[in-house]
Amino acid sequence: MEVSTFAHSPRNGWSVPAFPSLDSDATLVAVFGASGRFDDPQAIAELLAAYPRACVVGCSTSGEIFDTSINDGSLSVAVCRFEGTALRSASAPVARAADSKDAGRHIGEALLAPDLRGVLVVSDGINVNGSALLQGLNAVLPPSVVVTGGLAGDGDRFQRTWVIHDRRLAQGFVSAVGFYGDRVHIGHGSKGGWDIFGPERIVTRSTDNVLFEIDGRPALGLYREYLGERAAGLPGTALLFPLALRLGRDDDKSLVRTILSIDEAAQSMTFAGDIPQGSLVRLMRANFDRLIDGASEAARLTTARSEGAAQSLAIAISCVGRRLVLGQRAEEEVEAAKDALPASARLVGFYSYGEISPYGTGRCDLHNQTMTLTNIEER
Asked: Beta strand pairing status for 75-81 and 27-34?
C-alpha cells in the first residue's frame, strides 16, 4: 500500500510538482474541497484526469483538513494504491430527504459481496436525512462491514453542497467506495466532548428528522429561550448548542443531533438525522478542553487494533459546529488527533454536516458534533 497526500490552493496551485504515479484499478482518490469549487472545478478535473482508472470519492466541506492544518477554499487530496485490496464505487441520487433510505439501500446492494470489509460514504449535506440513509445501508450490509464517512459541508451557510458522482461534481447525490479482501483493515473512532446541561425533555411531536414539539411546547420557541441573544443567528448559532438524544430511559447510547434549518411558520427545526417521537433530548454546550481530548480519544480508538503497517491513510471528519466553537483553537483538535495516530499515517479530511461511524462496534450511526476518524491500512 502506497499513500500520497497533497493540496491545492487557488493562489499557489498544487503543492506537488507532478501528480504521483499511482493510477491503477486498485487506487483510491479522496478529495475534499470548498463548496465554491462547484463553480470552478478545473483543478479537480486535472486531478481526476491523472487517475483515469482510480475509484474516486469526495465532497464539499466546511473547511479542509490537511495534515494538521485547516484551510478554506483549498483541496485536500489523498491518493492511495493498494496491493491486495479491490475497490468498487457506487452512488445514488438524494434530491430530497424522503429519498435517503432508498439511496442507502441502493448503495448497499451495489457494493455487497462476501469479501466486502468496509465502505467509505459521503453524502449531500442539505437534502439528506442521514439517519434514513444509514437505515438503508444497515438493512443491506452485515454488521461486520465497517461503514464510515460524512455529510458534505458548505461552511456555515447551509445552502449547497456537492459530492463527486461519476467522476464529476454533482449536487443531490450520495457516493461511496467499497473495500474488498482479507488484507484491508479499517479502524474507526468517534468522540464528542460536549457538556450536557438542563433537564432531559421528551420529544412529543416529530416526523423523521423534523422536530415540532418538546414537552408539548413548540420546539423552536423553547430552543430560542435557551439561546437568548444568540437566537437571532439561527440556524447557524444552533451549531453551538446541539441536542443529546436517547431513544429511551434504558438506552445508554447517546447520539448528538445538529440543526440544518428552521421553519418559523411551523415553529419546527430540521436536523441532520432523525429525532424520533418519544425520545429524550437535552441541550449541550462546548467544553474546549474536552472537545480536544475527544479528538485524541477518537484517534486512539481508530488505531487500537492497528497492526503497524508501513503506511496508512487516516481520514478525519469533524463537525462544523466544533470548528465554530473552537475558533482559533480548532487546529488543536486536529493536532491532538494526529499525535495519537501512528507516525506512518497520512492525514486528510474535512469539516462536515454530520459524521458516519459505528457508535462502538457493529452497525454505523449518524453522529453530529463529533470528531470521527477512519484509518485504512493493509496487512
From this structure: antiparallel
242 within 8 A of 320, measured Cβ to Cβ: no
What is the spatial distance between Cα 346 and Cα 260, in angstroms, rounded to a whole number? 31
pLDDT digits (tens, 9 = 90+) for 233-278: 887 788 788 899 999 888 888 888 888 889 999 999 998 889 999 9
DSSP H or E run through 289 = helix 288-302
Largest CA distance in the chain: 61
Contact 91, 175 (CB under 8 A): yes
Q: Which residues of 73-87 are buried (b: 16+ CB within 10 A; e: fewer)?
A: bbbbbbbbbbeebbb
- On the question of a cis peptide bond just before residue 242, with omega within 30 degrees of 0, the verdict is no
Pairing label, strands 146-151, 116-123: parallel
Angle value at C-alpha 344, between 338 and 349, nearest 5 degrees: 45
Q: In whole angstroms, give the CA distance from residue 342 to residue 339.
A: 8
Residue 375 backbone phi and psi in degrees, to 5: -120, 120
- CA dihedral defined by 77, 297, 272, 259, rounded to 10 degrees? -110
Within 8 A by CB and 6+ apart from 59, the residues are 32, 122, 123, 125, 150, 152, 153, 161, 162, 163, 164, 175, 350
